[in-house]
Amino acid sequence: MDCLFCKIANGEIPAQIIYRDDLIVAFDDINPQAPQHKIIIPQKHIATLNELRGEDSELIGYMVQSAVMLAKQLNIAHDGYRVLFNCNAGAGQSVFHIHLHLLGGRRMNWPPG
Ligand code: 5GP
Ligand code: ZN
């Protein structure tokens, strides 16, 4: 499948991988929007949040728990961090394999742009 994040997950395209297990891969964003900007993807290809099925609930929960674990490891948990999914082009999704952004290390403004 011609998917950038599947290729990062299977090692065809290199990335600064910071965590990997059977379910997920986490790596540095190539164009960081904050001092810490990590991307967490499922190993399973799911194009957008709109394609989520009931059976994916545990996987999504696990992605969020993993973001919290990484935030603690990166020492941004206390000051604050943001985790988010963009869904479809109108929200800024540019890679169509769902991914959780983990951003921290600076003040996060609200509302986002
Ligand atoms: P989206 O805009 O789809 O929510 O987020 C996609 C993210 O993937 C962007 O923040 C972008 O910088 C990042 N990205 C795009 N291509 C690559 C790549 O080849 N390697 C890595 N590490 N990140 C990428
Ligand atoms: Zn994919």
UniProtKB/TrEMBL annotation:
Q: Where is this motif: Histidine triad motif?
A: 97-101
Under InterPro entries, the record lists: Histidine_triad_CS, Histidine_triad_HIT, HIT-like, HIT-like_sf
Q: What protein name does the entry list? A: Histidine triad (HIT) family protein
Gene3D superfamilies named among the record's database cross-references: HIT-like (3.30.428.10)
Q: Which domain of life is it from?
A: Bacteria
Species source reads Aquicella lusitana
In this protein, which residues make up the domain named HIT? Answer: 4-113
Annotated active site residues, numbered on this chain, are: H99 (tele-amp-histidine intermediate)
Query: Which terms does the record give in the GO molecular function aspect?
Result: catalytic activity
Q: Which CDD domains match?
A: PKCI_related
